[in-house]
Design a protein that fits this description.
The chain is of the alpha+beta class and 152 residues long. It is built from three helices and seven strands. A hairpin with a 5-residue loop joins strand 2 and strand 3.
C-alpha cells in the first residue's frame, strides 16, 4: 500500500499541471504549485529533520531512491538511478536560505501528502531535489533524493 501511494504521488509530480475541472466529469486533480508554502506541520518536521540526526535517519525510506550524476568521460556526465543506504548517508543540515547569496530554495506542495524541495545555486544551473511524503502513520519522511547535479 505504501509503495502504491508513493507511486501515485510521483505520477502527480510528473503531471505538474494546474488544478482543473474537467468539462465532462467536473472532477479535480490536485497537483504541485511551485513556490507554495508548506504547512506549519511540515516545517516543524523539516526543522527537526535537520537538527536531529537520529530523527533524520528514522524518517527516511530505506533504501532511499533517487538519481546522481556519473562521469562518462573527463567533461561529460549522465544521470543514473541511485539507492542510498543508511551506511552511505551523509546527514543533511539546513541553512538560512532567506539570507543566502549562493543558494535559493523553493517548495512545491502537492495536496497535504507531498512536498518537493529544490535547492539551486544562484550563479549556476546546479542544485538538488528532495521529496518528502506523509505516510499512512501521518509522519513525514524523505522518499527521494537527487544529489547535486546540473539542471536541464
Amino acid at each position: 500500500m505504501r509503495v502504491l501511494l508513493i507511486i501515485i504521488c510521483f505520477i502527480f509530480t510528473l503531471a505538474a499541471c494546474k488544478n482543473n475541472s474537467s468539462a465532462e466529469g467536473g472532477s479535480q486533480i490536485m497537483v504541485a504549485k511551485e513556490g507554495s508554502k508548506p504547512s506549519d506541520e511540515f516545517m516543524t518536521f523539516y526543522e527537526k529533520f535537520h537538527s536531529d540526526s537520529t530523527y533524520q535517519m528514522a524518517h527516511i525510506t530505506w533504501p532511499l531512491q533517487g538519481v546522481t550524476d556519473e562521469k562518462t568521460d573527463s567533461v561529460s556526465v549522465r544521470k543514473v538511478l541511485k539507492s542510498w543506504e543508511p551506511k552511505d548517508w551523509l546527514i543533511h543540515h539546513t541553512m538560512d536560505y532567506e539570507h543566502s547569496t549562493e543558494f535559493a530554495r523553493t517548495f512545491q506542495v502537492i495536496g497535504d501528502v507531498m512536498v518537493i524541495e529544490v535547492i539551486r545555486a544562484k550563479a549556476l544551473n546546479f542544485g538538488q531535489e528532495r521529496r518528502f511524503y506523509k505516510n499512512e502513520n501521518n509522519e513525514w519522511e524523505l522518499i527521494y533524493y537527487a544529489d547535486l547535479q546540473e539542471f536541464q
